[in-house]
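Researcher: Please predict.
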Amino acid sequence: MTQVLIRNGVYRNKPVHNETFALIKDYTKGAKGGYVTVDSNGFFGDEHTVVRVKVDSIEDIEIVGGRDEMAAVVEAAEPVSHETDEEVIARIRERFEVLDEMAKAAVGGDIRAMIVSGPPGVGKSFGVEKIVEQACLFDKISGKRLRAEVVKGSATPIGLYQTLYKFSDKNCVLVFDDCDSILLDDVSLNLLKGALDSGKKRKISWLSESSVLRREGIPESFNFNGSVIFITNLKFDKMKSQKLRDHLDALQSRCHYLDLTLDTMRDKILRIKQIADDGVLFADYEFEQEEQDEIIDFMTENKVKFREMSLRMAIKVADLRKSFPAKWKVMAQMTCMKSA
């Protein structure tokens, strides 16, 4: 049976994040928004089998075992845009330039907290990590403890508390990349709220007994004076769960929130084209312009068949174009696209 990956959705106020279900009925646009019908297989409890999971758009789901008829669904679900390709690229470029400038301000301590929202694989973290790495260059040369760290993946509440303490000094910077699990845990979320607070003093506390903290000499409370950049795939203003929305609204009120506005398939394709035309994406391949254009055109023509539309996928296709010039398209169909 065809499977569907739901990146962001909700069923009866329960958030659904990167979960795969058996597909019962394709994406449907109803009077109260879009939804996809799935067999939950006990995910929402034994009494809820066939359910409609609400999603904001077709971009929030991915059909596993793709079918050609999904192309019509995707095209129909794409919002009508009056922007030209050049205007879209200019909008996206400006947003990423602002991201770089804000990241530099965070490293300099002028901005204490920022949340960056955008889909996976569009380069959200690349520029931020480069700026953080440059900031730590002198620390590396002098043998000092690095004043910045990029935290990836899941984090336990006590692990988050330890990390915040370690980088609590005024000149420190913490980047949380793809750590959305923090937002789904009440304890972690409250710790993050404390770190992002707009007040002059940001006091963070851990009032539960912990042998781990005691052993490491970490106090039960401290003032956090560093800067935080939280990079996420979630669109805070599109979450349907009221409980989660209230928490996310509280985070937004505490810091700067930058939405990279890469909401459609077209946006993602033009982002790939922008990075390619800037000479960055395929810099190591020594492609002629014609070869580069051929890759972009191929990805555009098969946009609903690829497992994802991202810079990472463009690199995978470029690898095949370089290694198998005579049959790279066939290789891409077999290794980068959903099974028919």
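Model: Confidence is low (pLDDT under 50) at residues 65-76.
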